[in-house]
Amino acid sequence: MKLIVSHSQLRGITAAPPSKSHTHRAFILAALADGTSVVSSPLFGEDTNATLDAVEALGAEVSRTPENDTVTIRGGKLRPSAKIIDCKNSGTSIRILAGVAAQLAGTTSLTGDASLCSRPMKPLLDAFTELGVTVTSRDGCAPFSVTGPVSGAAVHIRGDISSQFISALLIGAPLSKNELSVHLTTLLTSRPYVEMTIAAMKEHGVSVVTTEDGFFVPKNQKYSPADARVGGDYSSAAFLFAAGALTGDVIVTNLYPKDPQGDKMFIDLLESLGAGVNRTSSGEVRVTKGPMHGADVNLADAPDLFPIAAVLATQCEGTTRLFGAAHLRFKESDRIKSTAMFLQSMGADITETEDGCIVNGPCALSGTNVTTFGDHRIMMAAAVAGLIADGDTVIDDAECCAVSYPNFVAAMQALGAHMRFA
């Protein structure tokens, strides 16, 4: 289905959708705890549903009650799945669940769609091998099988490809009889996502120690049941914030100011660029249109912001350089290339670099046909760009936003966006 977006002015208040990252972790950790945990206000999206199906395949008892906005999970007795686990398009699912499966005595096979099967897994699979796990894969990508359990107590892994690799090792570690030392061989990118993992593990009674070159998980720890309430998603809220900064006045609720999500830095970025920003201690953020100027922006810890940050940059006076996000080339699409392509087609002065882009603004954008490559963040960024473009912007595969923000279009329409499906 295509989405047609026309020039619009947005005004109003809307709630941020539940956090996809927190939902993944809440489902998986509840499945690892010996007892019953209730997850309230989770994100019911394609990626998180893939995680929920997977923990059920591994032996957790799952009760879904979307009408009550809860999921009840009884875990603690996981075993290898008799069927291949299909993680669809979810990188978080396949990587963290692989870390769990590697700790189980027996063989578990995991796969995904064509996009997921092209994304890198080799650093994590090599780490499993170092830990004594037998791995069978297709050139270091999915589909793959792991036969556990882990026997080693130390592992070395790159930190600059995906923070999900690190989260996978940490979350799986308490299932082993051994301690685990994770030694990073490169700088860790997207560190806030690992901090989010550690905070979630702590809620379930497991501690992780940060070391000079990585992390250490002491032995003799077990996950305890714990109820969790999933807060709003700063990654998805970024598209709402940007719409306010570019077109009018938007208030976003359901955000926790103390949440460890790295993408909340987008609010600081908007403020530094010149947009009007007002935040409250209760978690409301109001963003209004204002004259914005270019800046150098390091996105190493918040790479998912790149597409929408690039859209913002097209309306900034002067030059904006986005950098530090080379690992974006291994997402649902090559997000650096995908972003540059759609903004160039709309008339932006944007140059792709190895780890980001350079944008000279302000740019007059024109509506065009946009290819999303099935990438939800490209789809939503292009939709926001369409709000300030002359003429219609026609975006393909509009349903792909269901991965992280199923109600994106409806929320934008409620704020006054001229969007319609075709």
TrEMBL record:
InterPro entries noted in UniProt: Enolpyruvate_Tfrase_dom, Enolpyruvate_Tfrase_sf, EPSP_synthase, EPSP_synthase_CS, RNA3'P_cycl/enolpyr_Trfase_a/b
Keywords assigned by UniProt, alphabetized: Amino-acid biosynthesis, Aromatic amino acid biosynthesis, Cytoplasm, Transferase
Subunit structure: Monomer.
Family under the similarity heading: Belongs to the EPSP synthase family.
Entry GO MF terms: 3-phosphoshikimate 1-carboxyvinyltransferase activity
Keyword flag Cytoplasm: yes
Gene3D superfamilies in the cross-refs: Enolpyruvate transferase domain
Signal peptide: none
Source organism superkingdom: Archaea
Pfam families, sorted: EPSP_synthase
Positions contributing to 3-phosphoshikimate binding: K20, S21, R25, S162, S163, Q164, S190, D304, K331
Catalytic activity: 3-phosphoshikimate + phosphoenolpyruvate = 5-O-(1-carboxyvinyl)-3-phosphoshikimate + phosphate
Catalytic residues (UniProt): D304 (proton acceptor)
Name of the protein in question: 3-phosphoshikimate 1-carboxyvinyltransferase
Function: Catalyzes the transfer of the enolpyruvyl moiety of phosphoenolpyruvate (PEP) to the 5-hydroxyl of shikimate-3-phosphate (S3P) to produce enolpyruvyl shikimate-3-phosphate and inorganic phosphate.
Gene Ontology cellular-component annotations: cytoplasm
